[in-house]
Each structure stands twice: as structure tokens, then as C-alpha cells.
Amino acid sequence: MAVTVLIVDDSAFFRKRLSEILHSVTQIDVIGTANNGKEAIEQAKRLKPDVITMDYEMPVMDGITAIKHIMAESPCAILMFSSLTHEGARVTLDALDAGAVDFLPKNFEDIARDATNMQTVLRERIISVAAGGRAPAPSNRARTNRPTSSPSARSSDSLERPKVTLRSNRVRAEQEQRAVTKPTTSRARSGPAHAVDVLAIGTSTGGPVALQKIITQLPANFPVPILLIQHMPATFTPAFAERLDNLSKIKVKQAEDGDILKAGVAYLAPGGKQMIVGLRGGKHSISVIDGDSRLTYKPSVDLTFGSVAKSFPGKVLSVVLTGMGADGREGCKLLKAGGSTVWTQSESTCVVYGMPMAVDKAGLSDKSLDLETVAEHITNRLV
Asked: Which candidate, 122, 121, 156, 158, places its Cα nearest to that of 297?
């Protein structure tokens, strides 16, 4: 069964070109277009698409306002198109907060010139977000064991891409219902809890919302440094670090070359670069490098996880959250070989169960946790 798509954009050229590119994809059916947010709301109610591609700057009604209405009235997976600017990043993060599940850079030159590459990227992203369904709404996912809370890239050629299966609306609803009552699954095999000197979290699709939920719940007295690896363009990571810092009790910053790791500080890997941890002058510090061109992910979870496995043998708590592909699996192998702990996000609370699934299927995860409980487990373990 084809994934149905509604295209929303005020540019007639963009709507037409996107429709043409997707028309030849057998797994995707473009069932409608809209040129502003108000039309998008009406079309979403009438057509009930699996996925909506959404622009953010439109006449009559902007994309973020439209997303809020759609998620309240006729929820579905929404893929945001964003400009590669600081303002574009800020708006995209607001859109993810409002309920969009993922985003793609909006580049008219690429759309006009390279239809084949765009088709591949769009097909993978649309099918993946459709398979995952709409993003979980944390405020509506209360659980009996949930604590009260405070406020683009592809997988590397060397990594296996997990298969994605389309789900019907009925199956999605059943999974969301199970997520409300499903207890945390534990597969702990590593014996007594060991000392932890650093927390490392890797994620991709759905990660900005997941990271915000976790980081904003950590206490000001958090006792170890935190490394955050989110697949994100270079122009987006400064805005994302700033956003997390404003919302959190701990300090959050985009990592810089030479940063000395400090307790209670979260370091976000810069987009388009690799973040490596090592020793400088006897102190654990960060190196920000271009890295191997053969690694498609920049930043790469595998690379950062591998470096902390070497720098903090047996003393890393790592968490792999929602995301496409298998980035993080190879790094988790190194962490487990050294005696460190690996946790993964549960399938029912992932936007895309790709990265955690790769770690789970490799038998590397000590615990599978619902997103709403990750911060609680981290705090209970470390504080």
C-alpha cells in the first residue's frame, strides 16, 4: 500500500517539482497540494494523508500554526522543509516542538538540478516517517511510573539499514495504547552498576524532541559531562544548543575544539564535523575534526562512542535514541567490550525505530526504556 502525501508550500514551482519527483516513486502517492497553512488544515481533514511535507513561511497561515491545528485535529507524520539559516533552524525546532517528526533542507537549486538524488532522499525520509507514524505527544502520554517533568544524514555505506514496514492507522493506535501501559523492558546483563564518568547520547530522526525532553529534566547538580550526538546540519546545531541551554538547568553548548570536559555541562557535536574525546595535558577534552569523508554521518555516533569507550573504559553510560539507520551500533560494541552500559529507546516511543533496533538486535542493549522514563533512569543512576 502506497504512502499518501500532501504537499504544502506557497511556491507553485516547489509544489510542482516535488510532485513530479515523487510521482515516479511506486511506494508514494501524492494525493493533494496546498499553498498555505489554512488550506493544509482543510486538506488534512479531508484527505487524511500519511505524510505532509510542510513549508513554514506562507501567506494566510504559517506552517507552525498549521502543524499545531493538524496535530490536534487530524494528526499525521509531518516533514518540515527548512532553510539552512540560523532563523530557519530556530523555526524548524519550533516546528518539531509543535509536532513535526523530521525536517529536510529546502534548496531550490538541488530540487531543480538533481532529481534523482532528491528522489532517493525524499523516498527514504517519507517512507520512514510514515512507518513511524506521528511523533508521540509527551503531554498526552502520562504513565503510572512517569516522574513529574520540568520544563540530515543517511547511514554509512558500511552499516546495514534496518527494514521499514508501513503500519496501518489501526496498528499505530494499538502501539500508542501499549506505550501508555507497557512497563520498561530490562535486559541487564552486566552485573552490579559500575561507576560512570561520562554520559553519551546518540540520535537522529526524532532526536531534537527526545533530547529536549531528557536534557531539560536533568538536575543542576548533574555529576558528569554529557556528550550529545544529533544528526543535524551545521547551521542548525548552534540554534539547537542555545535552545537546550535556555530550557535546561544544566549548561548546554555546541562543542568546540579544545573544550575540557566538565561535570554538569552537555556538549552538542557540531553539524558537519566529528566530535572525538581524548586526553590533552592529562585532561579529557574534545577534538572537533572534519573526519573521514567515507563516513556519511557528520557527526557520527559511532565515532564519538568509540572515542569515549577508549577514554573512559568501563565508565560510560550511553543511550541510543530514535533515528534512521544503524549509526551507534559499532560504537556500542566497543563500549560493551570495555564494560560500559548501553541503553536504548523503546520501539513504541521512537519516531523511527532504526538506530535503537540495530543496537537491540545486536544484543548490546542493557535496557530498553520508554522515552518518558529515560531522564528518570539517568538521574537515579548518577545523581
From this structure: 156
- pLDDT tens track for 186-217: 444 444 567 999 999 999 999 999 999 999 99
Q: Would 51 be classed as within a structural domain?
A: yes
Give one DSSP letter per residue of 69-134, joined into a string.
Answer: HHHHHS--EEEEEE-SSHHHHHHHHHHHHHT--EEEE--HHHHHH-HHHHHHHHHHHHHHHHHH-S
Same domain, 246 and 123: no
Tens digits of residue pLDDT in 262-309: 999 999 999 999 999 999 889 999 999 998 877 889 999 999 999 999
Choosing from 155, 204, 318, 340, the catalytic residue is 204
What are the pLDDT digits (tens) for 104-155?
Answer: 888 756 655 666 777 788 888 899 888 875 444 433 333 333 333 333 333 3
Our count of domains for the chain comes to 2
Its domain, for residue 113, covers 3-135
Domain boundary among 82, 115, 135: 135
| Same domain assignment for residues 201 and 344 | yes
Residue 241 pLDDT grade (very low, low, confident, very high; cuts 50, 70, 90): very high
308-321 residue pLDDT tens: 999 999 999 999 99
Assess whether 377 carries a catalytic annotation.
no
Whether 101 is covered by a domain: the verdict is yes
Task: Give the domain CATH number at 372.
Answer: 3.40.50.180
- Answer yes or no: 69 catalytic: no
Same domain, 188 and 111: no
Considering the domain boundaries, does residue 157 fall inside one? no
Pick the catalytic residue: 9, 302, 327, 360? 327
Which entry of 69, 231, 284, 377 is annotated as an active-site residue?
231
* 122: nearest Cα among 79, 84, 160: 79
Mean pLDDT calculated for residue range 319-328? 96
365 is annotated as an active-site residue: no
In a domain, 115, yes or no: yes
Q: Which residue, 135, 150, 167, sits at the end of a domain?
A: 135
Q: Which three cell numbers stand for residue 375?
A: 531522564
Rg (the chain; Cα; Å) = 20
